[in-house]
Structures are given as structure tokens and as C-alpha cells.
Amino acid sequence: MELHWLPVEHRVTFKLATLAFTIKNTGQPGYLRELLPNYQPVRTLRSSSKHLLGEPTIKTVLASRGFRHSAAAVWNNLPDSLRCCTNVDRFRHNLKTHLFHLAFTA
Q1: What Å distances lie between residue 24 and 1, 78, 100, 101, CA to CA?
Q2: Is the bond preceding 29 in cis, omega lying within 30 degrees of 0?
Q3: How far is it, in rounded angstroms, from Cα 92 to Cα 65?
Q4: At 90, is the secondary structure helix, strand, or coil?
Q5: What is each CA distance from 66 to 21, 22, 62, in whole angstroms?
Q6: CB-side exposure of 37: number of CA atoms within 13 Å?
Q7: CB proximity list for 73: less than 8 A, separation 6 or greater
Q8: Mutual orientation of helices 67-76 and 8-26 as an angle, nearest 10°?
Q9: How far, in Å, CA of 89 to CA of 12, rounded?
Q10: Average pLDDT taken over every residue of the chain
Q11: In a 3-state reduction of DSSP, which class is residue 106?
Q12: Quick one: three-class SS letters along 6-71?
């Protein structure tokens, strides 16, 4: 805590969320962009404007560990203020602060 380092679990979350942010905002690399589709409900819902990613339906625990599911799950669990960010530096700063509070104030 003194060094302001995140625990390993939250560090993994930080890396996944940062990668998802980069993919969502730049569309690069294309092969990963195809794995993270935007959430498109069939009809208009309140969640339509929350910048969510579509989570695939999975049937096994092993599939839940894959990038497609875990990156979308991490992204969708972030607060709205983080998902709406457009600047990568501001996103990383706010994300680390959010994860630090989750790790050390519980």
C-alpha cells in the first residue's frame, strides 16, 4: 500500500481494462476488435447508452477465462465514468484509483 502497487488480481483487471479501452477507442488491433463487439440490444433499453461490450454466452469454466469473455466482463463492471473516458492517460489514472480503493478500503 505504501508503494501504491495494486494486488495481482487488480493488476490483471487493470491490464484487461486498459487493453479493452484501447481496442474500443482505436479499433486496433483488428483481430482483437472482432472479439469485443459493442452491446447491441434488440430494442431500445436504458443500457443502450452505457458503452457496454457484448458478453458471449459461455458453457464452461474454461471458456470464462478466455479474452473474449473476461475482457468484456471486466469492462462492463467498470463505473460509467470510466467507460465514458476518451483520454487514455485520464482513464488509466482513474482506473488505478478505482482499483486501489476496491483493494484497500474493503
Answers
A1: 31, 14, 23, 25
A2: yes
A3: 23
A4: helix
A5: 17, 18, 7
A6: 6
A7: 55
A8: 90
A9: 18
A10: 85
A11: coil
A12: CCHHHHHHHHHHHHHHHHHHHCCCHHHHCCCCECCCCCCCHHHHCCCECCCCCCCHHHHCCHHHHH
Model pTM above 0.85: no
Distance between CA 32 and CA 37 in Å, rounded? 10
Asked if residue 71 lies in contact with residue 20, where contact means CB atoms within 8 angstroms, the answer is yes
φ, ψ for residue 70, nearest 5 deg: -70, -40
Could you tell me if 94 and 18 are in contact, meaning their C-beta atoms sit under 8 angstroms apart? no
Question: Please, are residues 88 and 19 in contact by the beta-carbon 8 Å criterion?
Answer: no
Q: How many CA atoms lie within 13 A of 97 on its CB side?
A: 9
pLDDT at 89: 95
pLDDT beneath 70: ranges in the chain: 39-50, 106
| Residue position matching grid coordinates 458471449 | 56
Which contiguous run of DSSP H or E holds residue 72? helix 67-76
DSSP annotation of 93: H
